[in-house]
Amino acid sequence: MQRLAWQEYSFRLHCSVMSKTSHTFDFRPTNERDFSYIARLNFLTDTFGDEHGELSDGFDKDTDFYVHSWKPEDGFVIFDEHYIPAGGIWWTWGDEQHHGRGFVDAAYPEIAIAVEARFGGNGLAGELFRRCFERLEAEGVPGVSLCVSDDNDRAQHVYRRLGFELVHQSEHGYQVMQKVF
């Protein structure tokens, strides 16, 4: 089998916990070829993973920041052993004039994460966060921020468990949270 170039730089995680089948996943840093997949993941964050979900009123504005302002080296994506995309985490850098909903400070990138529904329950989100935090902390970044919908109790619980704290509650139905390294 021919190996893809990025596999030389990928990390492997074997998952069998909480899953009926065993999967092996490759994690790799994002690159310019991942633009359309980052756009898909952004869609999944907006619809809470619902393929048929309605887009939020702010989707186009959010996409402008979280997708079109994304730099190809800022993130990680996951593929299973069949090269089927399983999810990713990416971050964007904002400032006072141009930022997303989770903006706290220009020194803190805003992160976004999504795991494809078929691969949920394999610990992929936790591993994506771990790799993201490890890399950004090694680069001297003081922390990260994000926004989460008031309707997404599951994500709020995960973020608090990972050390995120509430910065402020928006009147538009979401919370801004940050994690300091």
UniProtKB/TrEMBL annotation:
<dbReference type="InterPro" id="IPR016181">
    <property type="entry name" value="Acyl_CoA_acyltransferase"/>
</dbReference>
<protein>
    <submittedName>
        <fullName>Putative acetyltransferase</fullName>
    </submittedName>
</protein>
<dbReference type="GO" id="GO:0016747">
    <property type="term" value="F:acyltransferase activity, transferring groups other than amino-acyl groups"/>
</dbReference>
<keyword id="KW-0808">Transferase</keyword>
<dbReference type="Pfam" id="PF00583">
    <property type="entry name" value="Acetyltransf_1"/>
</dbReference>
<dbReference type="InterPro" id="IPR000182">
    <property type="entry name" value="GNAT_dom"/>
</dbReference>
<feature type="domain" description="N-acetyltransferase">
    <location>
        <begin position="25"/>
        <end position="181"/>
    </location>
</feature>
